[in-house]
Automatic annotation (TrEMBL):
This is Thioredoxin-like [2Fe-2S] ferredoxin. It comes from Lutispora thermophila DSM 19022. Gene3D superfamilies: Glutaredoxin.
Amino acid sequence: MKIKVCAGSNCTLLGSMNILDQIDDLKDIISEDADNYSDEILEVEVIKCLGYCKNTNKKVAPVVVIDEEPMFNATSQAVMEKIVNKIRKQN
Ligand code: FES
């Protein structure tokens, strides 16, 4: 899974670095509980402004893109849920 976290000034101001920290914590949780997750690797990329804030006057920051699907006004909780839902094994 490819995750891009925006590190541009708009997104940083609105908390994208907290989201990045949470993704790092989630990686640890997943590796300690490997039986319950697929072994898909989380590739996290930090990008200096993904460009979404430039082409709109809507509020979009912070932006996180998961497998090419952008999440606007992303919260840690929404990002974690999306990642976990994609990689948690169904019992
Ligand atoms: S600063 Fe994040 S999309 Fe521009």
